[in-house]
Design brief:
The complex is a heterodimer of chains A (about 250) and B (about 220). Chain A has about 250 residues and is α/β, with parallel strands linked by helices. Helices cover about 40% and strands about 20% of the residues of chain A. The two termini of chain A are about 25 Å apart. Chain B has one domain (about 1-220). In chain B, helix 6 runs antiparallel to helix 7. Classes of the chains: A alpha/beta (about 250), B mainly alpha (about 220).
């Protein structure tokens, strides 16, 4: 049984269907890289996995149990790094991490944990610098350092490398590899190539129902008309599959 | 519970570091109340009669003033996402935020109110009840306020919208808060009014966090 899985996920934002029929499975120690054009739903999918956004249809399972059965428990299993770094201008780097560690429920030796987290992202010399004096890249690193305080198995990262220099990307890759080596799961969206051991790629454009996206995918391929022709029946098949699932669900009910 | 305290502590720490934010509500409270004698004239008998009402209206507006930033800054910089993903239930997050808001605005208002009462020539017999009424009523303002703040989160011109949503809900607190002082001054006893205020607090304390948390979940989607 996969540790974390999504079944037939569908995302509706406003009245636009962002993606549909998306499924994935992850074992512990595996990672999944989400790619796709802007607006293909990478952030939405990550927020769904975090439980912040409810899927329009479909289910997310952790060890076979739906995550919305016990959202409080699911939250303790994950760390999420979004586009924003959640760094307060008035709090120093160390204070920021101490706060997040405390909020995550850590007691006692928080200082050592925080020192370690800062060192991993080369922020130790900035520990006492208030957030307002940190550069965009440094704030990003501080946001990422939050991953290392705590022991949540599932890391959800939304373009973690944005704003980072090459050395910092190297550090990030090392931290991610270490997390995987300890059996953690990583799901991240990115536009740049990140070196991750045994990473699989999920292209969200494959699940887009937006005609513009289908066109873009078609243009990418060499045999555009052939792909376009393939695209239509494929989507129809996916639709039929969903209908089938729905009937099965009804029959079961 | 520890997460709750951590969150309140952080909000207090942030507000005290950015000292201006915390002071603005109190300064606004004093200025708004002091405008009335200028408008109405310094006639002591007139002022004494409306002093309690003025102080309560000024307190409502001061409380409203600081509500907009209560959740908005955390929402804008992504902190709210992270807080929502912490192990603390969202209802307690809301309660922690409201507690911090009350400590930073409600408490200073209670402390400043007697000074304003003197300035507005209120009968000294009402001073004690004014403070008690504010002590019971101002947490209700923070609790109702955070529902509005959560509902208008992320909306354009959310602050204006929030005022429109919240001010009508403040009316019961205003009626019984000002009424309590009126009763005390006229010697009729403020017990009934204070009990109603207490009832409002007893209702808002468990209900407001649920309403605001539901609104927050919607805003975070």
């Amino acid at each position: 049984m996969p540790v974390f899985a999504g079944l037939d996920l569908c995302c509706l934002r406003g009245d636009r269907l962002v993606f549909d029929g998306l499924s994935f499975e992850l074992q512990s120690g595996e990672s999944l890289i989400l790619v796709g054009r802007n607006g293909s739903g990478k952030t939405s999918l990550l927020r769904m996995m975090a439980g912040l956004l409810r899927p329009w249809r479909g289910r997310l399972l952790w060890n076979g149990a739906a995550i919305d059965d016990d959202p409080d428990l699911h939250r303790t299993r994950l760390r999420y790094v979004g586009h924003q770094d959640a760094v307060k201008p008035a709090l120093s780097a160390a204070e920021t991490l101490v706060f997040w560690a405390r909020l995550a429920g850590h007691r006692g030796d928080v200082d050592r944990l925080v020192g370690n987290g800062l060192a991993l992202f080369d922020l130790a010399h900035l520990a006492d610098v208030p957030g307002r004096f940190l550069s965009a890249g440094q704030r990003r690193r501080l946001g990422l350092a939050r991953l290392t305080v705590g022991s949540a198995p599932l890391w959800l990262l939304d373009e973690p490398s944005s704003g980072l220099d090459i050395a910092s990307i190297g550090r990030l890759e090392a931290v991610l590899a270490d997390h995987q080596a300890r059996g953690g799961l990583i799901i991240l969206s990115t536009h740049v190539a990140l070196e991750l051991p045994t990473a699989r790629t999920l292209d969200l454009d494959d699940y887009a129902l937006d005609p513009a996206a289908a066109l873009a995918t078609a243009e990418d391929g060499a045999a555009a008309p052939a792909l376009d022709d393939d695209g239509m029946p494929e989507r129809a098949a996916a639709g039929a599959g969903l209908a089938e699932d729905a009937t099965v669900g009804e029959a079961r009910a | 519970m520890r997460g709750f305290i951590t969150l309140v502590e952080r909000d207090l720490q942030l507000a005290l570091r950015q000292g201006a934010d915390a002071a603005i509500a109190v300064v606004f409270f004093v200025l708004a109340a002091i405008l009335f004698p200028f408008g109405i004239g310094p006639e002591p008998s007139v002022l004494a009669r409306i002093a309690a009402g003025i102080i309560w209206v000024a307190a409502l507006l001061a409380s409203l003033l600081s509500l907009e930033r209560l959740l908005q800054t955390d929402y804008d910089d992504g902190s709210l996402d992270q807080i929502a993903l912490a192990s603390l239930p969202l209802e307690l997050v809301v309660l922690a935020k409201a507690t911090a808001h009350w400590l930073l605005t409600g408490l200073p208002l209670i402390a400043t109110a007697p000074v304003l009462a003197v300035v507005l020539r209120m009968d000294p017999a009402g001073f004690g009840i004014l403070m008690v009424a504010l002590a019971i009523g101002s947490p209700v303002l923070s609790l109702i306020g955070i529902i509005g703040a959560a509902l208008t989160l992320g909306a354009r011109r959310g602050g204006m919208l929030m005022s429109l949503l919240i001010l009508p809900l403040y009316i019961p607190v205003l009626i019984f808060g000002a009424g309590a002082v009126e009763m005390a001054v006229s010697g009729l006893g403020a017990r009934a009014h204070l009990l109603v205020l207490g009832g409002l607090l007893a209702a808002a304390l468990p209900l407001a966090p649920f309403a605001a948390a539901a609104a927050l979940r919607q805003a975070l989607e």
